[in-house]
Amino acid sequence: MRESVPHATTPDELLRLKSEYLIPCVYHFYRRPPHIVAGDGCWLIDHEGRRYLDCYSGVTVMSAGHCNPAIVEPAIEQIRRLQHTTSIYLTEPVLRLAEELAAIAPGGLRRSFFCASGTEAVEGALLLAALHTRRPGVIAMTDGLHGRTRFAMNVTGLPMWRTDPFGMADVYHVPFGDIAVLDGVLGERGGEIAAVIAEPIQGNGGIRVPPDAYWPAVRRVCDERGVLLILDEVQTGFGRTGRWFACEHWGVVPDILAMSKSLGNGFPIAAFLTTDAIAASYIRPGASTYGGNPVCATAALATIAYHREHGLSARAARLGERLLAGLKDLADRHPCLRSPRGKGLMVGVDVVDAAGSASPEQLDELLEALKDRGFLCGKTGRGRNVLTLMPPLIIDAEQIDALLAALSACLDEMEDG
Ligand SMILES: Cc1ncc(COP(=O)(O)O)c(C=O)c1O
Question: Which atom of ligand 1 is nearest to the CA of 260?
Answer without folding.
Answer: 10
